[in-house]
Write a structure and sequence with these properties.
This protein has twelve helices and nine strands. By secondary structure, the protein is α+β, with helices and mostly antiparallel strands. It folds into two domains: about 15-145, no CATH class; about 155-250 and about 295-305, Chitinase A, domain 3 (Roll). Helix 2 (about 45-60) packs across helix 3 (about 70-90), helix 3 (about 70-90) crosses helix 5 (about 120-135) and helix 4 packs across helix 5 (about 120-135). The chain is globular and about 55 Å long.
Length: about 300
């Protein structure tokens, strides 16, 4: 599939800014006075903390009782992804010291983050964590080597690519009711290359697909699932089928180079325990994503001509 596989590249120092500026907020740790709403590893948010997180991202106060679920799901999803990495590093005693935080702050300010931005402490924490990963070290090595088996797979997959999330839900519903995957792929997938082959992408090594696709495929293998989705990417939304389980020797730590950050982010997402109040969305541990509640499928089926 020419449009979809994508080579990895080294995460730049401004990665956190580019990926998270639109949705970051200062975290509020649950203190026991409110109901816990979000947990990733040992890190928690209460409902007021979620409202503060969303309010920070949207630029205004948010009432936790009337919070927009789609906005909340998007904000919390990013929170979960990067706090998972922080929690993984904590497990392996990787200490982010004052020097690392200062260096991260300077880089973020130089990249254009306002020094008065109330989200800056969280930016600094997440950027520092990524910097620690990129710099390696014994704790980072230990975290990778203890979990490298999770990444010891070639990805043997097929997919159906559609434009909208509700269309992916509709595809999943059809497949679960017995529709043929290859026929559906051939008739509706927006990836013409794989559609001609019933959606097949063959077997490829890790590092060839965009991170969200790889995370979902690895999650399916970890949880013993054959079918996962919706999986968002820059191309649309994927429904992924695991066609074969092919174990391989994981890449040695010293050979990861620019892939180290991506590997640790994948490991963190696969190994952290995540719990989310259902009012804020549905957590899919296989896909590794918090998604807003799905709506009716009829409009999507009509758009797909099914």
């Amino acid at each position: 599939m020419n449009e979809f596989p994508k080579n990895r590249r080294k995460l730049p120092s401004t990665f956190i800014v580019q990926a998270l500026t639109a949705a970051l907020a200062l975290v509020v740790i649950a203190c026991g006075s409110s109901i816990e709403a979000v947990r990733v590893g040992d890190i928690t948010l209460d409902r007021e903390g979620v409202a503060a997180l969303v309010g920070e991202a949207t630029g205004g106060p948010v009432d936790v009782e009337t919070i927009d679920t789609e906005t909340a799901a998007n904000v919390i999803d990013r929170f979960l992804r990067y706090e998972a990495l922080s929690d993984l590093l904590n497990e392996f005693d990787v200490v982010i010291d004052t020097e690392a935080r200062t260096a991260a702050r300077d880089r973020l300010i130089a990249a254009g983050v306002d020094a008065g931005n109330p989200s800056l402490p969280r930016f600094i924490g997440w950027q520092s964590a990524l910097d620690m990963v990129e710099n390696g070290g014994e704790g980072i090595r230990a975290a990778y080597e203890a979990n490298a088996g999770l990444l010891g797979h070639d990805l043997c997959t097929s997919h159906i690519l559609v434009t909208y999330e509700d269309e992916a839900h509709a595809v999943l519903s059809l497949l679960e009711s017995g529709e043929d995957f290859a026929q559906l792929a051939g008739s509706i997938s927006q990836d013409p290359g794989s559609a001609e082959m019933g959606g097949s992408l063959g077997c490829v090594a890790l590092g060839r697909f965009v991170p969200t696709f790889e995370r979902a495929a690895l999650g399916a293998l970890f949880w013993g699932k054959t079918l996962v989705g919706p999986v968002p990417s820059e191309f649309g939304f994927h429904v992924i089928r695991i066609d074969e389980v092919r174990n391989v020797e994981p890449v040695a730590f010293d050979e990861l180079d620019s892939r180290l950050s991506a590997a640790l982010l994948q490991i963190a997402g696969l190994t952290r325990t995540v719990q989310v109040d259902s009012r804020f969305g549905s957590w899919d541990p296989a896909v590794g994503r918090l998604a807003p509640p799905s709506g009716p499928l009829d409009p999507a089926l009509a758009r797909l001509g099914l």
